[in-house]
Amino acid sequence: VQLQASGGGLVQAGGSLRLSCAASGMIVSTNIMGWHRQAPGKQRELVAATSSGAVTSSGDLTNYADSVKGRFFMSLDNAKNTVYLLMNGLKLEDTAVYYCAGPLGSLKTYWGQGTLVTVSS
After folding, report:
1. Where are the beta strands (DSSP E) in the chain?
2. Coil, strand, or helix at residue 93?
3. Which one of 2, 28, 77, 107 is least enclosed by Cβ atoms within 10 Å?
């Protein structure tokens, strides 16, 4: 199983980015997938996750951390076996390395390599 994350970069506060996580060896639509982030000096936190294996391509069954609700949106592309995280209204405190992972809550969870998001003022 491999998870390849991409899409990070430098963005001004208030801007948007879309992260991608291409999976191989695992079907994202039938597994609980999540996006985590780790800011400098802080613990890794879960920011978004699908709530069950039966998710729609629009990612309707998705849970979000309170800090990103209404700004971040997780979705799936079944044809590309890819998970996305659309981040709008970015804030300085969103600066972190973002990781995709799955399946969550299983005996073995796989992690992508992380992609850096830097929000500037």
Report:
1. 2-6, 9-12, 17-24, 34-38, 45-50, 62-64, 72-77, 82-87, 96-102, 110-111, 115-120
2. helix
3. 107
